Amino acid sequence: MALGKVRRWISGALGSKPRTVVALLVAVVVTLLGWYWPWGLLFLYWAALSVRDGDAFLIERISKAGNPALFWSITALWTTFGLWILYVEIQTRLA
Predict the structure, then answer these.
(1) Can you give the pLDDT at residue 39?
(2) How confident is the model at residue 1 (pLDDT cuts 50, 70, 90)?
(3) Is it the case that residue 14 has pLDDT exceeding 70?
(4) Is there a single domain that holds both residue 52 and residue 72?
(5) Strand blocks (E) in the chain
(6) Which residues contact 44 (CB under 8 A, 6 or more apart)?
(7) CA dihedral defined by 34, 35, 41, 46, rounded to 10 degrees?
(8) Based on the domain organization, do 53 and 92 belong to the same domain?
(9) 62 contacts: CB under 8 Å, gap ≥ 6
(10) 29 and 40 share a domain?
(11) If 86 and its partner were Cys, which of 40, 54, 55, 65 is the partner (CB 3.0–4.6 Å)?
C-alpha cells in the first residue's frame, strides 16, 4: 500500500514522464562529475531505438521508409558517437 502512495507521489512530482526526468537529472550529474561514458551509452541506446522503430531524430523525425539514406546516416552517427565516447573513456582511464 505504501508503494502505491510513493508511485503516485513520484508521478505527481515528476509529471507523466518520470523516467525522462530521472534520465535528465542523471545526465546533469554525470556531466558535472566529468563522466562521459553514460553519454556514450545514451548515443548507443538512441541508435538501437532508431533501428527498432524505423525512425531517427536529429532536427526532425526521419523515417527509414521515407528516406533510408538519411535514416542510416543519422543512425550511424549515433553509433559512431557512442562507440567513440566509450573508446576515449576507456583509453583515458587505462592511461
Answers:
(1) 95
(2) low
(3) no
(4) yes
(5) 55-57, 61-63
(6) 78, 79, 82, 83, 86
(7) -20
(8) yes
(9) 55, 56, 70, 71, 74
(10) no
(11) 40
Q: Rounded distance, CA 22 to CA 18, Å?
A: 6
22 lies in the same domain as 41: no
d(CA 26, CA 70): 30
pLDDT in tens, 18-69: 888 888 999 999 999 999 999 999 999 999 999 999 999 999 999 999 999 9
Cell readout for 72 is 542510416
- Tell whether 25 and 68 lie within a shared domain: no
What's this model's pTM, rounded to 2 decimal places?
0.78
Note whether 91 and 72 are within 8 A (CB).
no
Residues 51 and 76 in one domain: yes
Which structural domain, as residue segments, surrounds residue 59?
36-95
Phi/psi for 58 (5° steps) reads -120, -80
